[in-house]
Amino acid sequence: MDIENENEELHNELTPEDHQPQEVITKVTGMYKDWFLDYASYVILERAVPAIEDGLKPVQRRILHSMKDLDDGRYNKVANIVGHTMQYHPHGDASIADAMVQIGQRDLLIDMQGNWGNILTGDRAAASRYIEARLSKFALDVVYNPKVTDWQLSYDGRKKEPINLPVKFPLLLAQGAEGIAVGLSTKILPHNFIELIEASIKHLQGKRFTILPDFPTAGIADFTNYNDGNRGGKVRVRAKISQLDKNTLVINEIPFSTTTSSLIDSILKANEKGKIKIKKIEDNTAAEVEILVHLPGGISPDKTIDALYAFTNCESSISPLGCVIEENSRPNFIGVSEMLRRSTDHTVELLKKELEIQLNELQEQWHFASLERIFIENRIYREIEEEETWEGVIQAIDKGLQPYIKHLKRAVTEEDIVRLTEIRIKRISKFDIDKAQQKIEALEEDIAQVKHHLEHLVEYAISYFKRLKDTYGKGKERKTEIRIFDDIEATKVVIRNTKLYVNREEGFVGTSLRKDEYVTDCSDIDDIICFMADGKMMITKVDAKTFVGKDIIHVAVFKKKDKRTIYNMIYQDGRGGASYVKRFAVTGVTRDKEYDLTQGKKSSKVTYFTANPNGEAEVITIFLRQAGSVKKLKFDLDFSDLLIKGRGVKGNIVTKYNIKKIELKEQGVSTLKPRKIWFDDTVRRLNVDGRGELLGEFKGEDRLLIINQKGIVKTIIPEITVHFDSDMVVLEKWKPMKPISAIYWDGEKERYYVKRFLVENSDREETIISDHQKSFLEIVSTDHRPVAEIVYNKLRGKDQKPNDEISLEDFISVKGIKAQGNQLTTEKVRQINLLESLPYEEPEELPVEEIEVIEEQAVTPDSKNSTSGNDISLNKDVEDDGSGEQASLF
């Protein structure tokens, strides 16, 4: 093999006596560099990355060109199309067939017949010999025009193929594209057909626009970090999950880039790992997705929905990357907005070329029609009867035309005269001057119209896009719901799949200590909080066996930022020292770091400790030891008299004398401020952070009232993990004695009915409309005195009946929730409106005594060692709050 001169050769020197052959060492650096770059360029330009001009990869372009070659309006076998494409595409038939199926599944360019697979289930298409295809009307309309197409020779030089197809639509963004080349890749997400057209129109009008992906699998998506499709962006996609009943979830839409099979596999794996707990899964998917997830008894559906998003493919992230080929020569990274602008501008250029070609053709038709009329009307054909040579014939006609051609727009050529000689005698004999003039006038109107379009090209392009939307936009509405997602903390939704044990004396906690004391169920990603008898505290991750400190007095699963779990504690400050009392919350610390809740003196110990999940404050009785001049050996202490502070606070002095024992006198009630809860409609979740609409202040027993469009009424505990369906019409704090008013259409009796009722069973869902399939809820109100307006239909031959205003409070009394109610009217009703309610003064609620958690602050050396005031002075001279180190747990 010959080696290029650029490759370095090293020759060993040989003496004349040495008869061994000369060794040559060749470095292949140059070869590798050149050949690899050639290969990389080929893969990037000819296989993996689409062109910005028409949005197609070479194989897709060749498939569409072949389909146009074969197009006769009928279906062709895909195998036949694949074979025809191989004239242009120098690769195997399998790659062509796969690419064709992908184009077909986009449901835009190809009219399919047979089993083309299923993007929802992941089922493959049937063999190419069994399925058929033809170009869609949309493809024939926007993809082809050989008059404005630039051509090149195919790989073997036998055929011509288009360099780019003249696509007059942002096809790349509508279909999306994905490809892995050498050293780069592309991932352009599909966008909505109608929205792309509307964005193109806005661009032509000089307005700003935003386009977001729309996936064929529907689902829900958060495009907050889409970054216009540039690298570094991220799209979060979720399945649409709803609650069918208390033990069943249903998945009706799946995230893009997943299938029902891969989704179910991920759910089963999460169940095997103990992240979620399910009973069984049913896949009823056919034309539409339907996956039923059956839950065991006692499992929260809302928490399971969050767990499905956290631990399965029900939520995934997609990283877009906008890479395209420009001018068939180089890759370029651009955003989807720029892609749309370039595509729209390219469409305008193509429309201009088509108009210019059309104008030229019309002018040529007008020119020859005028010549033909002159030739026949003035009988110039008679002047060639005496001519014996072809040249003489041409000259005679040319001479005969001269007096009549001054109004023509261009000179008469020999080619024009030759065409005149080809007119048949029969046509001349039947020539109608009026019809000829009408044809010329029609051509002049067409020319004027085309010139007007060229002069107003932008308006013409806008009309073109509007026609595309009107003609092909039906059924192409957005499928993917746009929503901002809330972040799901895995530790809050994971199923507790293991058990936690403790050896209090030795100071070990873990999941492997099965012979020791059982504490609680937990998950393998939980953190646990431990308190020891010497006043130390530590938070650590769940493990098989962990040493935290001897004499454990309390251990539990730790919730980060939990301000509602309050710890009540009394400790003795060193041997023989005074006893202090404190109430505190633990919201965040550094994992595996030991914290001292006392003042740090040797031999300090905890004499009383309780953990209260809702800030309960009990009353205790303290017994002192007989010593010296102590007169009062027994007294009560109410924790509700003490402020809640940070864990590092010193506390208040209980007594300077030794405590003999402490007994519980009275169980505590919550002293925490009722929680304000908001509903954020953007993410459709509750929160305590002030986002969205304030629903009210909730105590432990308070509930939310929910009514949906199907007429289902229920009340729930306002947990942050609750999911809300999109058909919800009422969401508010439930007041048990506040009546609900509803007007509904009874499908069986075909009449409107009114009912007023109270929710009788807070733990049960109730339907407030009749069971007939045509029944529906018209109006619902939770006001005390609602007013409805009835607008009647106008009867033929009669005057319009005036509208009626009805106070629902006077119209019907409060009855049972299952009652049918009273018939609203026997007249035909056109519309029912809810008017402003009559005034009502609600009774004032008694204020609740509040003790609010005080945020933790840094401890100063002075405050740490300061005195705390007199004995039992629990809400006077309270110590400065101190929390020690406030580091993040995570």
Radius of gyration: 42 Å
Number of strands: 50
**Mean residue pLDDT:** 86
The gross shape turns out to be elongated
Question: What can you tell me about this protein's structure?
Answer:
The structure is a single chain. The protein has 890 residues and is an alpha+beta fold. It contains 18 helices and 50 strands. The strands form 15 sheets. Strands 27, 28, 30, 33 and 34 form a 5-stranded mixed beta sheet that branches. The longest helix has 42 residues, at 336-377. The protein is elongated. 31% of the residues are buried. Residues 1-19 and 848-890 have low confidence and may be disordered.
Question: Characteristics of this structure?
Answer:
single chain, 890 residues, alpha+beta, 5-stranded mixed sheet, 18 helices, 50 strands, 25% helix, 27% strand, disordered C terminus, Topo_IIA_A/C_ab, isomerase, Type_II_DNA_Topoisomerases
Helix/strand layout:
Elements: E1 9-11, E2 24-26, H1 29-48, H2 58-70, E3 76-77, H3 78-85, H4 93-105, E4 110-113, E5 132-135, H5 137-142, E6 151-153, E7 160-162, H6 171-175, E8 177-180, E9 185-188, H7 193-204, E10 220-222, E11 235-238, E12 240-245, E13 248-253, H8 260-272, E14 280-283, E15 291-294, H9 301-311, E16 315-318, E17 323-326, E18 330-333, H10 336-377, H11 390-401, H12 414-421, H13 425-429, H14 433-455, H15 457-472, E19 481-482, H16 490-493, E20 498-503, E21 508-510, E22 517-522, E23 527-532, E24 536-541, E25 546-547, E26 552-558, E27 566-572, E28 579-585, E29 595-596, E30 605-612, E31 616-624, E32 634-638, E33 644-646, E34 652-655, E35 659-670, E36 675-680, E37 685-687, E38 693-698, E39 704-708, E40 712-716, E41 728-733, E42 740-746, E43 751-757, E44 766-767, E45 776-781, E46 787-792, E47 804-807, H17 808-811, E48 814-815, E49 822-823, E50 829-835, H18 861-865
Parallel strand pairs: 10-19, 28-33, 43-48
Antiparallel strand pairs: 1-2, 3-5, 4-5, 6-7, 8-9, 10-11, 11-16, 12-13, 13-15, 14-15, 17-18, 20-21, 20-22, 21-25, 23-24, 23-26, 24-29, 27-28, 27-30, 28-34, 31-32, 31-35, 36-37, 36-38, 39-40, 39-41, 40-44, 42-43, 42-45, 43-49, 46-47, 46-50
Helix pairs in contact: 2-3, 3-4, 7-10, 7-15, 10-14
